[in-house]
Amino acid sequence: MSTDRTRPAGRRDQNGPRSVPSGPRSVPPQRSRRQQPHRPQRPHQWFAERLLAVLSGQRPVHWMLGHTIGEAYDQLAELAPSTPLGAARGARPVLRHCRGAQPATGVVEAFASITAGDRVRAMAFRLEQGADQRWRCAAVELGGERLTAGHSGPR
Question: What pTM was estimated for this model as a whole?
Fold first, then answer.
């Protein structure tokens, strides 16, 4: 028996195990997303996801309260009940691409493509940054249709 009380009884080596144990744990761990550096979403990507959720009927319109300015909330409130980006043939709509440009300080004009099954829709929106540094949606367009209060069809 060993006189060293820090090692288990019967253990004779000084440094510990030298080989990797065999079995399922011998496979090196896979790199997970958590190990990759976290890159925060850009405002236009975050808003595209939120707009998609509202316009597809996954979230209620009031979910956008405080995230819109001007007539944008009224536009969404009028259009959302018809769920223009709703599921096509049972396929849930997914944000495919989202890009943005900054034509002026505190303004982002963005566009996104949304797929649902074999259907692709376009969405454009404008974000404006307030004095409190928060981004808010100021306008939304779907596939060439400007969403205006009182009229949601083509111009």
Answer: 0.67
